Amino acid sequence: MSNIAEIEAAIENLPDPQVDQLAHWLETLRQRRTAPPPVESWLQRARGAALPGMKSKDVMALTRGEE
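RE: above sequence
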C-alpha cells in the first residue's frame, strides 16, 4: 500500500475487532506524537518549583525526582 486510497480500501475489508484494534493503535500514536518529550515534561513540572525560603538541598531533591 502506497497511498491513502489503498489504505482506506484495506481498512474497509477489516473485520470489526481489527477495526477497533486499529482505532486504538491510531489513538495511541496520536497521543505519543502530541505528548511533550520527557525532558520538556520534567521542565514544565519543575519550573517555578523553587519557592522563596527553599533550601538548596530541597531544590536538589526536586531535580533528582525525590519530591
